[in-house]
Every structure is written in C-alpha cells, then in structure tokens.
Amino acid sequence: MQNRWNNQDAARHTTDLALRVYSSRLLGQDSSLVLHGGGNTSVKVTETNLVGETEEILYVKGSGWDLESIEEAGFAPVRMAHLLKLARLESLTDPQMVNELKTSMTLASAPSPSVETILHAALPYKYVDHTHADAVVTITNSHNGLARIREIYGEEMVIIPYVMPGFDLARLCAERFAAEATEKTVGMILMNHGIFSFGESAKASYDLMIELVTRAEDYLKANNAWDLPAPTATGSSKSLRGEISTLRQEISAAAGHPMLLSTDMSPACLSFARRADIGTLSQQGPATPDHVIRTKRLPLLGRDVAGYTAAYRSYFKENATHAKDEKTMLDPAPRMVLDPELGLCCAGRRAKDAVIINDIYRHTQQIIQRATLLGGYQALPAHDIFDVEYWDLEQAKLRKGGTPPPFSGEVALVTGAASGIGKACVEALLARGAAVVGVDINPEVKQLFQRPDFLGLACDLADEAQIPQALEHAARRFGGLDMLILNAGIFPQGRRISELPTAHWRKVLNINLDANLILMRESHPLLKRAPAGGRVVIIGSKNVSAPGPGAAAYSASKAALNQLARIAALEWGCDGIRINSLHPDAVFDTALWSDELLQSRAAHYNLTVDAYKHKNLLQVEIRSCDVANLAAEMCGPLFAKTTAAQIPIDGGNDRVI
Ligand code: ZN
User: Fold this and answer.
1) Is 405 strand, coil or helix?
2) Distance, CA 40 to ligand 1 centroid (Å)?
3) How many angstroms separate the CA atoms of 254 and 333, rounded?
4) Is 554 a catalytic residue?
5) How far, in Å, from the CA of 203 to the mean position of ligand 1?
6) What SS3 class is residue 649?
7) CB-based contacts of 548, cutoff 8 Å, min separation 6
8) 646 has a pLDDT exceeding 70
9) How many Cβ atoms sit within 10 Å of the Cβ of residue 433?
10) Per-residue pLDDT tens over the stretch 6-31
C-alpha cells in the first residue's frame, strides 16, 4: 500500500488542524482505504474560549464530508470534557447521543459530529485515524477471521467484536482499550468493520495506518488470496434495453417512485455475476456496516440463472413488511442486482447514488473473492444488517433529506443537445433532477457536461441504425427513458417552390420528420415502461400555423411532425404516454442566428436589432431558456393531464392568434 505522505506538502500545513486535513485527504485518496464518505479522523487540541478558559477540543470529521475533499470547516469541534463523561455512562440512546454531541460543539455552524465521535474521544492519542480498509475487512470477514487477525497483529492491536456503530460500540471500545492496551498497542481492529490507528502527530498516525493495512495485504498475498484471476467475461452486443427497462420498472414500483438503474457490464462484474457460487456469495451481508448505511439494502439480491423475475417477486414479498412499517423510511426496492447478462446493476434516485453503490460493490466483489480464496467469506449475520436499517441515527439522516427535485429517478433524452434550445433543455431537465441523455451530430455533445447524470452521445439521427444504438446506450447507463424532447432539426436557406430541388426537400424532411418518426417508434417500448408515465415534447414552430414564403420544406416538415404528434397522442394515451408540442418563434440566441443574419433581417424591417428581437405583441425577447423551461414543465405535474396540446412561445403573434 502506497504511503502518500510528502514532507514538502506537509510543511505547508502549520497548525494541528491543517495537518489533520492534509493527512485525512491522503487517506481519502486511496479507495481501498476510504470510499465515499466512509472512514473518519480526529485531532485533539487545546483552545482558549471567549471568556479566557482553556478547553480541550476534539475536532472530528463532520457528517456530509468526504475525507478525500475535506476542509477545516468539515471538522466539528466538540468539548472533550463532556465527551469523556458521556463515554462513562451506562447507556445512551442514539437520539440522546446525537443531541449531546451537537450541543457540546463550540461552533454552531459546524457539521454534525461523526457517530464515532465518542470513540475518537476515548482513545488517548492526539491524532486518531479510522478506515474501513478493504484488506482488513477481507480478513475479518473470512473464515477464522479472528484467529487470522491475532496471527497478523499479535499483541499490537486491541480487537473489538462486532457491535453496531453508536454509543454501545464507543463504550465497549473505551472499556476494552483501557483494560487491554499495553505499551505495544499501536491500533485497534473492529471485527467486520475496520481499523483504527493513532499517534502524537498526524504523520505517525497516518504512517501506522499504512503500515498496518500493508501487513493485512501482505498476509493475503502470502496466503494466495490477493491476486484474482483476470476476468474473461465479455458483455453482450445484443439489445438489452427491453430487459433493463423492465427491471427498472419493477424496482421503481417496489420503491414507490422512479429510480435510475445503471448497468456495469465490465469483465470484472460479469465474471463475478457468472460465478457458479454467486447464489451463496451474493446473499451474504456486506463487508462493513458503513456499506449498508450508504447503500441501504445492498447485497441482498443476486439473480441466479433461473431468471430474475421470480427472485424479485419473492424478494419483494418477503420484504413487504418493511415497506408497511411506519418506523422505517426505507422502501423495499433493491439498490443493486447481479445478473449474468446485465452485470452489476445499481439503482438510485440520483445518478450519483448509483455511482456510489457501484463503487462500493466493486470493492465488495474484490473483498468477497479474496476472502473466498482465504477460506470463505463470512459476513455479519443478517439480523445485524437489518438492525442498521432501524437505527435511529440513520432514520434521522433519511428524514433530513427533504423533498427530492421533481424529475428525480427519471431519464430524459434531448435531440440537438449540443447548442441552442437543445442545450437549454438539457440544463432545464438537469436542474429538475432528471438524468439526461444529450444526442447531437456534433461530437462536442460528449463533453457538454462532466457530471454523472449526463450522457452525451454523438449520433446522426439521419442514419436509421444509429437511433436504436443511442437508446441502447441510454438504457444501459440510466435504465430506460421517461421523457423525450424532439428538438433536432434544420432550417435551411429559403427557396421558393418553383426552385426547390428534390434533394433539398428530401433532406429537410428526412431530418425534421423521418428521424423523429423512427426515434418515437424505437422509444415507444421504453416510454411505455416509464414508472411515472412517458412524456414526449415536440419543439415545433410558428411556421406550423403561420408559414412563410420560401420555407416550403421546413414548414411542411414541421406541420407533418405536428400531425405525427397528434396521432401519437391518440395511439399512446392508453400506454400513459402524453405528447405535447410547443411552437417557438424568433429565438435568436441559437446557432441558426449569426450577428450578420440578425442585422440583415432587422435592416429588412427597418428596425434596430434590439427592436427586431422584441417584434411581437408582448414586446419581449424569447430566449432558448424560456423555450427549454416550458418544455421541461410540459413533462412535469402541471401538464400531467394534458396531451396533444400545442402552446405557442413567441411573445404573441397576430398571424397565429
Ligand atoms: Zn467505521
């Protein structure tokens, strides 16, 4: 294991807390030590308060912060004197503990202190580092784990049996540590949970963590339980979007709201899912309670070759009591599914949640496989895992979440997404919580947004074969399709009918009409399975009702598309899919309108550019974002009972009215 300490970098950090931040970040950089908010660290310092008294303060990682990116503001300052008194109490409920920790802080605006705060306070060292290191939990979760830990660390570690994180664990650690620690003690192992190191300096504590975890890694290597066979499984190139969207539909139904479903068909995940013993391995508990907390019902469901549907049904039935239980805020939907063909599927209301689950389970796969090589994976008993779900602290955290944005768990696809109205639609949908697939012939769309809830696909919609490919991509990444925004189109140079070449006419109709028909047809099976009903929004044009001379191909294509939308509303209403159109006019902040073109059009009407932009009844400028916000709202609850509507967004036009 790499020791990332750098004396030059460290020298730039002069206070105890600054060094605490520095070495916490080093721990956070190694995903085999700390994953997504896991692990916590602390430092004890002496401070003088406003009335001149000196106090010992524990700066401990606050909730909501990741070690990898933590700052000084991410540490909660808690008065040591009170923490040490709490550690001696006979019992303390979780809500009481949360209250005591919060009211013992010296800074009201600091984040809530970690649930492991009292444990940190009870360890008599200036710096305390705690991780859920993969190598350590691999060994504690394997057959004869306790004996192996003793063999590796001898008397250097105090070993604590598994207790759920919270006050009872803190008290047990404090007692055991006081009774068992000797001058040889350099750390503490929490069975089925993780490892603590400590020291009088940030470097000493960090170095020890690396050294102790390296010993666990070396033990695995020496026992031929480190190197895993190279995964050989390869993903299928056939269409899987029907199966994926069905699975997502079932998970969403169990959750009671739409969920994203992200598939990982990497060789490692497919090989793991295809193991002959996957039925047994996948049904065991997680490697550390932290993983349950972060992923809720993580590894409880594995699909065997018999087929997933029966497995899900029985799973949902078994867990129905949890859903009905008023005490728990958790729904019975699985957050991950293993499938021999779909690989590792991770579900979440946000794309980020699915990414976190994927990361955690990829590490878990490695832990399980290494522990298996070591003699067998032995996780926590199932009832301990379920205890965590009822854990008061977690309940409180879940309740604090607030109302999710309106399109949470839903997927939208926008065509012509690289610029103008399409790009604005992507932004409007992301802002409302949707995961968005942006499609454009311009490959720059792939780099449009670097975030887990956006997928940019370069795709020529005029090429019929590329459309199903784009939908397959979208389904594999996010699980299906709920909203389709048909925006892509071309507005060619004006031509009178008498001079209109056939090729020009065909090109415009191919892109503005035919491509949309194919996309709608191919999207229908996915939209039909949208958990909250499918929505299609057509970006039409003023030209539908007020055509202009010289725009025969464009106006005809948009009018035909308008008619297509009306037919779709008739045909798809029974599938819960609603189709609405909006007709923008004079949206000048798009790629179609250069400054020169604007100036020449304005001059044509004897107007300034500004007056030309406001040339409508309301005298307002229509921007891409206005059109995009209307398109997004048409997918929202306001339009839940509306289909086949056509709404102008043009500032009022006397030719249309
Ligand atoms: Zn922990």
Assistant:
1) coil
2) 7
3) 5
4) yes
5) 21
6) strand
7) 555
8) yes
9) 16
10) 999 999 999 999 999 999 999 999 99
Distance CA 358, CA 295 (A): 10
| DSSP state, residue 90 | S
Residues 6+ away with beta carbon under 8 Å from 222: none
Q: Give the Å distance between the CA of 180 and the centre of ligand 1.
A: 21
**Ligand 1 centroid vs 631 CA: distance in angstroms?**
45
Q: Please choose, from the candidates 485, 416, 473, the residue with its C-alpha nearest in 3D space to the C-alpha of residue 631.
A: 485
Residues 6+ apart with CB under 8 A from 528: 534, 572, 575, 576, 577
Is residue 387 over pLDDT 60?
no
pLDDT at position 256, please? 87
Residue at a domain's end among 376, 399, 422? 399
**Going along 452-577, which residue ranges are E strands?**
454-458, 483-486, 535-539
Q: Which residue has the higher pLDDT, 37 or 611?
A: 611
d(CA 565, CA 572): 10
CA of 191 to the centre of ligand 1 (A): 11
Question: Could you tell me if 348 and 360 lie in one domain?
Answer: yes
Domain shared by 474 and 598, yes or no: no
- Cα 290 to ligand 1 centre (Å): 6
pLDDT score of 285: 63
The residue among 26, 29, 24 whose CA lies nearest residue 5 is 26
The number of folded domains in the chain is 4
Find the CATH number of the domain harbouring 430. Answer: 3.40.50.720
Q: Answer yes or no: are the C-beta atoms of 297 and 318 closer than 8 Å.
A: no
In a domain, 230, yes or no: no
- What CA–CA distance (Å, rounded) separates 568 from 562? 10
Q: Which of 59, 153, 206, 554 is catalytic?
A: 554
C-beta separation of 360 from 287 below 8 A: no
Q: How far is CA 72 from CA 42, 43, 48, 111, in A?
A: 11, 11, 18, 11
CA dist list (Å): 430 to 244, 374, 427: 22, 46, 5
Check whether 617 has a pLDDT greater than 60. Answer: yes
Clarify whether residues 459 and 599 are in a common domain.
Answer: no
Tell me, rounded to whole angstroms, the distance of Cα 298 from its chain centroid: 15
Residue 384, pLDDT above cutoff 80:
no
Q: What does the alpha-carbon distance between residue 392 and residue 480 come to, in Å, rounded to a whole number?
A: 35
Q: What is the mean pLDDT of residues 364-391?
A: 73
| Cα 403 to ligand 1 centre (Å) | 28
Residues 344 and 338: beta-carbon distance below 8 Å: yes
Residue 68 tokens, joined: 């990898």
